[in-house]
Amino acid sequence: MKAEDKPPRVGILAVQGDFAAHAALLRSLGAETVEVRTVADLEASDGLVLPGGESTTQLKFLKEEGLFDAIRKFAAAKPVFGTCAGAILLATDVRHPAQESLGLLEMTVVRNAYGRQLASDVFWGWSNLHAAPMEMVFIRAPVIEKVGPGIAVLAEYGGKPVLVEKENLLAATFHPELTSDTRVHQHFLDLLDRKSTESEAMSARR
């Protein structure tokens, strides 16, 4: 982001999970944040974070507040980042048990697949965001069993993808907001900046 540019405004779904931790981390990186509970909150955002929590509860809230369709429309042009339950909401195929989702990112996700032993454990794993290992906090985490074409795997743990990306969509099965490592959130802000630049360039050509 250029110094003269307005800082990005990142919306964070504020229903469950540690959305305040996401907000604090993003603000430390220079972004503005807004808690999203209505369609108007969403429309005032440049990007969106879907935090952890219970995906079925969040799904119910999205439908009740008209956010389900609004987020699908939003994601067609603006960046969306889902962590844990947020990653489940982004997936096209959710299992154990099966449930409806936003269906935005072509991947198969198994809910609570790591089991209770990873209730709140911290591990270190490979990522291509930096040479140093990445700290990963798993809390009843889902497992990404399969990803579709065009999806980049940015980090792995135990031979499974834990951070994936396609175009303007980013998903993590762990909780980067619960660590002091800012690399994942910075990557999301870089993605947001690129999409904003692309959008401005397209508008200038019209």
Question: How does this model look, in words?
Answer:
This protein has a single domain, classed as 3-Layer(aba) Sandwich (Rossmann fold), CATH 3.40.50.880. The strands form 2 sheets. The chain has a 9-stranded mixed β-sheet with strand order 2-1-3-4-12-11-10-7-8. The longest helix has 23 residues. It contains 6 helices and 12 strands. With 206 residues, it is an alpha/beta fold. The model has no long low-confidence stretch (mean pLDDT 90). The protein is globular and about 40 Å long. Helix content is 30%, strand content 31%.
Tell me the CATH topology. Rossmann fold
Order of helices and strands: EHEHEHHEHEEEEEEEEH
Q: What top-tier CATH class fits best? A: Alpha Beta
Total number of helical segments?
Answer: 6
Rg from C-alpha positions?
16 Å
CATH superfamily: Class I glutamine amidotransferase (GATase) domain
How much helical structure, as a percent, in the residues? 25-40%
Shape: globular
Number of strands: 12
Q: What is the average of the pLDDT values?
A: 90
Structural class: alpha/beta
CATH architecture: 3-Layer(aba) Sandwich
What is the total domain count?
Answer: 1
Terminus-to-terminus distance: 23 Å
* Biggest sheet layout: 9 strands, mixed
